[in-house]
């Protein structure tokens, strides 16, 4: 005699008196378990596309430890790898929102920044499209133009005049990128070394955005990612990698 295994969980969830529906156990969905990690004494979620291409790019994003990990010194590593026939990109998202203040990203190195590789240090509000999702960016990338500067600071949308500055930065030495977000403007700086006071060791003059439609805080989160422009594979050679020594936030009331 053939006996079919069943689950009564759906009926139990509906409560006493609900009609019992006999469903195969396999038909009961299993919740997706998010991977989280601790970096700079904060909790972060590791992004995954669930086997589908998603933005930016679009690309496949992986939560595997070969793509995202924190090393013994506490540094965060993001790496693009090839797995199951696809290039897998990496992104982490802070579990909390920060608001007005200074955001500092201490970058140890960027390795194998090919023409289509992009590394982002930014804010993004996934709950509200206002102010272009409150996206404030530092981005490493050549955007398929090998002779272009390899770095930019942006107050999105970048397509509007005066909202982006591009410049060259070294990839193999410690740098600190910071922006100070206040109602009267957003100050972007890149400095040499690991510092909490970037104005004292500027790599180049800072840039302050005071233009129209300055974003106000909402429910934005901090994100760090490493991805492929238009999903175009990186050149042959070593795996692209972004190493962040530390993220710091200094609250500053307006």
Instruction: State the end-to-end distance.
Output: 74 Å
Number of helices: 2
Integer tally of domains: 2
Enter the CATH topology name of the largest domain.
Answer: Jelly Rolls
Structure description:
With 254 residues, the protein is mainly beta. It folds into two domains: 1-30, no CATH class; 32-251, Jelly Rolls (Sandwich). It has helices spanning 9-14, 130-134; strands at residues 36-39, 42-46, 53-54, 59-61, 68-70, 76-79, 81-83, 86-94, 101-111, 117-124, 136-141, 151-155, 164-167, 175-182, 185-192, 207-209, 221-228, 241-251.
Keyword list:
254 residues, mainly beta, 11-stranded mixed beta sheet, 7-stranded antiparallel beta sheet, 18 strands, globular
Give me the secondary-structure topology:
Layout: H1 9-14, E1 36-39, E2 42-46, E3 53-54, E4 59-61, E5 68-70, E6 76-79, E7 81-83, E8 86-94, E9 101-111, E10 117-124, H2 130-134, E11 136-141, E12 151-155, E13 164-167, E14 175-182, E15 185-192, E16 207-209, E17 221-228, E18 241-251
Parallel strand pairs: 4-8
Antiparallel strand pairs: 1-2, 2-8, 3-4, 5-6, 6-18, 7-8, 8-17, 9-14, 9-18, 10-11, 10-17, 11-12, 12-13, 14-15, 15-16
